[in-house]
Write a structure and sequence with these properties.
Elements: H1 18-30, E1 54-65, E2 68-74, E3 88-93, E4 99-103, E5 114-119, H2 127-134, E6 140-143, E7 147-148, E8 157-163, H3 167-179, E9 183-190, H4 199-205, E10 210-214, H5 215-218, H6 224-228, E11 236-241, H7 243-252, E12 260-265, E13 277-281, E14 287-290, H8 296-303, E15 321-325, H9 337-341, E16 344-345, E17 357-361
Parallel strand pairs: 8-9, 8-11, 9-10, 11-12, 13-17
Antiparallel strand pairs: 1-2, 1-6, 2-5, 3-4, 3-6, 3-7, 13-14, 15-16, 15-17
Bound molecules: FE2/S2 (inorganic) cluster.
Length: about 375
């Protein structure tokens, strides 16, 4: 990757260059005075435009740490796979129909295979258990093309902070940083040495720049200041891990040598500004209360346990339901204004004002007996 080139957008497209942005702004500013538009913007491309599914086959499987399995996926015909950049993730359709997102942890230069690593979470939604129990070499899968919401910009100084399985999007960034000769450091944290995926691979890279830090050796998890103490002055920090780790790093950033923070979290963000509201399942269905500190998706899944979901963060679209009545506070990063106006709603993050009732058409609701 050229260090002066901005990272591609979420579709993997190169970003518009500075001259074109200037030309567009000029056209927007002065075209009315010249009697008509000089430059027209393309209509906004819907975020969820359909793309053909990738056909993949599991070609290798190995244990990357306690409860972590690494899978290698390839095109069944041996052809090259679509390109990707560090930070990208793959949306996999599992044999059960579940959809899950996993960061790509291999080498972007390898177009023959994708690598993902998955920690088994027995109390999760079933996706990780299905992968551990049923995916073996030869298993066929489908996936969407890789997308990137956590792009790596190759600033001259970089600190990478990984919590447990959060190492997966950061591993390709380590390789990218080394390729470009950046001043980089990686801190990888976890409960114990046996729970750190890729620990041997990391240790072998550069023992002076890789810092493995375990709770059992230090009497508990690290503070934000402790993690950021490894930052070169002016570093960009890339962090992926559990919510408490991200919160600790965010709190400590101002007093650290680091200059900026980019992060990717596991699962849902804590709800800090929610109001209690209600959802109704269909026009004449039951009304369910959504407390201020819970998501509508969590409440809906108590009544409809098979309601699909994946990211819990409003970017994958898996949990989409239809809003039949009520005023929603859309908080997702996926739906266009047109899709929202047509009634699409992502209940994993979207909410409503206090006391509002959202009437929802939930997939499968009409097939079920009403209480
Ligand atoms: S679960 Fe991904 S958008 Fe709701």
């Amino acid at each position: 990757m050229d260090l002066r080139t901005p990272p591609p957008d979420l579709y993997g497209r190169p970003r518009a260059d500075t001259f074109f942005r200037f030309l567009t702004a000029f056209g927007d500013r002065y075209s009315p005075a010249l009697g008509g538009p000089l430059l027209r913007r393309s209509p906004r491309r819907p975020f969820s435009r359909p793309t053909p599914a990738l056909q993949l086959v599991v070609t290798a499987r190995r244990r990357a740490a306690a409860d972590v399995v690494e899978l290698t996926l390839a095109d069944p015909s041996g052809g090259p796979l679509p390109p990707w950049q560090p930070g990208a993730h793959l949306r996999l359709a599992l044999p059960s129909g579940r959809e899950r997102h996993y960061s790509l942890c291999g080498d972007p230069a390898d177009t023959a295979a994708y690598r993902i690593a998955v920690r088994r979470l027995p109390a999760g939604g079933g996706g990780s258990v299905e992968i551990h129990d049923t995916l073996h070499p030869g298993t066929r899968l489908t996936a969407r093309r890789p997308r990137n919401g956590f792009a790596f910009c190759t600033e001259p100084a970089v600190l990478l902070l990984a919590g447990g399985i959060g190492i997966t999007p950061l591993l390709p960034m380590v390789h990218e940083a080394r390729r470009h000769g950046l001043d980089w450091h990686l801190v990888h944290t976890g409960r114990s040495a046996g729970t750190l995926p890729f620990a041997d691979e990391l240790r072998a890279l550069d023992p002076h720049r890789v810092h493995l830090r375990t709770d059992d050796e230090h009497g508990g998890p690290p503070t934000g200041a402790e993690l950021l103490a490894h930052a070169p002055r002016g570093a960009a920090v890339y962090c992926c891990g559990p919510a408490p780790m991200l919160a600790a790093v965010q709190r400590a950033l101002d007093g650290s040598p680091a200059a900026s923070l980019h992060f990717e979290r596991f699962g849902a963000a804590p709800i800090t500004d929610g109001e209690p509201f209600a959802v109704r399942l269909g026009a004449d269905g039951p009304v369910l209360d959504v407390p201020a500190d819970r998501s509508a998706l969590d409440v809906l899944r108590e009544a409809r346990p098979d309601l699909a979901y994946s990211c819990h963060q409003g970017f994958c679209g898996t949990c989409e339901v239809r809003l039949l009545a009520g005023t929603a506070d859309h908080r997702d990063r996926r739906l266009t204004a047109e899709q929202r106006a047509a009634g699409a709603l992502l209940p994993c993050v979207s909410r409503a004002a206090a006391g509002e009732t959202l009437v929802l058409d939930v997939p499968g609701a009409s097939d079920r007996p009403r209480p």
